[in-house]
Amino acid sequence: MRLFANTAALVGKELQTEFRSRELLITTMFFVLTVIALFSITFDAAVSDPKSVAPGLLWLAILFSSSLMLQPCFLKERTNDTLSALRLSVGDPFAIFLAKLVANVCLLLITELLALPLFAVFFNVKIMRVFPQLILVFLLGSIGIAVTGTALSAISSQARMRELLLPMLLLPLLVPILLASTEATAALLGENPALRWDWLAILAAFDVVFLTALWLFGEYLLEE
Amino acid sequence: MAKTGVYTFLVCVLMGVTAYFSFFVAPTESTMGLVQRIFYLHAPSGMVSLMAFLISCIGSVAYILTRRPKWDWLAVSSAEVGVAFCTVVLLTGPIWAHPAWGVWWAWDARLTSTLVLWLLYVAFLILRTMIDDADRRALVSAFFGVFTFLDVPLVYGSIWWWRTQHPQPVVFTSAGLDPTMRKVFYLSWLSLTCLMALLIRQRYELESSREELRTLEQELEAT
Amino acid sequence: MSERIGRPAGLKFTKIEKRFGSLYALRRLDLEIAAGECVALTGRNGSGKTTLLRVASQLTRPTRGELAFSGLKEGAVPAIGYVSHAIMLYEELTAEENLQLFGRLLGIAEPRRRALELLEATNLAARTASLVRTFSRGMKQRLAIARALLNNPGVMLLDEPGTGLDTESMVWLANRIRELRDQGRTIVMSVHGESALSQLATRAARLDAGTLIADTRAGATFQSVFAVGEA
Prior knowledge:
Largest sheet of chain B: none
Helix content of chain C: 25-40%
Mean pLDDT of chain C: 89
Largest sheet of chain C: 6 strands, mixed
CATH class of the largest domain in chain C: Alpha Beta
Mean pLDDT of chain B: 88
Strand content of chain C: 25-35%
CATH topology of the largest domain in chain C: Rossmann fold
Largest interface: A-B, 30 and 28 residues
Structural class of chain B: mainly alpha
Oligomer: heterotrimer
Low-confidence stretches of chain B: none
Low-confidence stretches of chain C: none
């Protein structure tokens, strides 16, 4: 189907351009590491068991970093008006969103996977025994962040104060993701690791709801 | 004009009656005493704000589909009124909590959810100030309005489930409501709903007048 | 370009209005362009030329009014090539990658072959594997035209295509447009005044403050349309 062919072609373009410069990836990764480190320092003395706050801090770090990483998503299409070129070429504008969504999930996952070892070291948590399950939580959480972030990037690129606007719009919206991901991660990193399907269900529900909303209303965001 | 005046008067009367009932008719709660009466403002305000946000979402969806400006006016009016009622919940919460339980704030399900909702809709209103073009602003904020309202059940659900997993001792509930209390509660809900409708209507008229002024200015410029 | 050209279509603008906030870019504009015509649009900055072209390309939705295409099969979508002020190309990709990407998105069979073909035709074959970031303004413009020609559009819309071009590139551009015109494509290009490009036109029209104030179709002379007089 043309939608998937177009999406595949665009995902290729998104990842190709990012991997050529790697600017966004490297900057985001170091931002995540900095935030995790700062959180670890702050809470080490203040809390008797830093491990207990670790999952929440990890997801906060991811959320803050995402809200910065997703900023250029649509903004960069404005430099040479490549957005118009895309709109003229693709049949279904949803392909543009879907491609950016897939690319953003990939970039988020890479960032998270690279941050994970350092997180494990700073907070003394055992991640290897639950690694596949952690990936699942990261995947569902990242999809939720990427869907909303990509859509809001399209919104903020049309407004003033866009650097502050995107985090301001995105973070409250992602409260369900923050809660569910933190709880699921905490359950996996605890004494008796368990995969919490209830929280995963909330993550999945979030992903489905917003993906559908984006599919239904997304093209209106690209209109002039 | 006269109709609005009559309606305003009725709403005032209704609010007055509710206040009277809240203070003098509803029985005093055994443990918390006088301060518990703020519940008749706190809880219904939360429900009314949700109703206002629902109306805002309807306005947003209708705008996206029809592009008639009146739906945008409805969306922003009800969002503002919703935020106002949300603020009431967030202010009455601590006012109730401190004398009753000794804490200013507690992350109970309703208060937490209301706070997130407040943040979301204030973000909605701030977004609107960042876009100058009226049509663009209407479309973009309509989209965000839809996204925000879709988030509401997820926010409430996830927070409620989270609170269930980690129960806290301090609770803002009205568990075991006495029948008279229940009646006063519904009365309060009714009067606040009427107030909400009035406020939305007034704000809508204001927005409509602003647009009319703008259109006239443009037409003048065109000639 | 030996392949079959997309069917040239006519454009009919009926009472087109476009408002940006409190600014009217186009006011109740009526304009009919026949298939195969080569129209030069002129007018001051801000007269609405760019907006009109964006409405024609269907990138911009008019606030009011209708745009219809003639000469097409029932329900068919016209193949349109659009060249604007901005280059509409990815600077971090090579010339070939750009054309291949857009070719794939358009659903062209053998996008790579088409890309190389167009690079040849626009004298960019030597820079096939160079990043667009390294191109000069003239080269970027040529690549933009290559992109616009990917699906052999029957309608070409060009927004001040000569801007920032040196003499050599201007000559090349004029030759290309002549070629496109002689192939029977419908061409609408906005120009700033008389130039090598405007001389290629079969019709000229002047816009001012979002309305059509002069049209050679309506009897005005080319000279009067392009005359720079009192506003």
